[in-house]
């Protein structure tokens, strides 16, 4: 169950590790992955404790849907705060434009 503070801590550890290993790293990739992780669509197999909060690309909103063996976000508010900030909205729009131009 990662909330915004936990994601920041994880990102910090990844940056330190990347520097130690002399590897390029972007914190954006961690957040982008959290906002693009697709749920397991077998919702009828979920128990309430495995129902995950995911960003829905169709509605551009976070919601409870699908199963997850790990929760990416602790609350809907955390998901909205992270996935719907202006920088990520702009990146998604650019990504959609690139997909349609190919």
From TrEMBL:
One of its GO terms (molecular function) is serine-type endopeptidase inhibitor activity. The keyword Iron does not apply. The keyword Lipoprotein does not apply. Residues 1-29 form the signal peptide. Keywords: Signal. Gene3D superfamilies: Pancreatic trypsin inhibitor Kunitz domain. This is GM18123. It comes from Drosophila sechellia (Fruit fly). The gene is Dsec\GM18123.
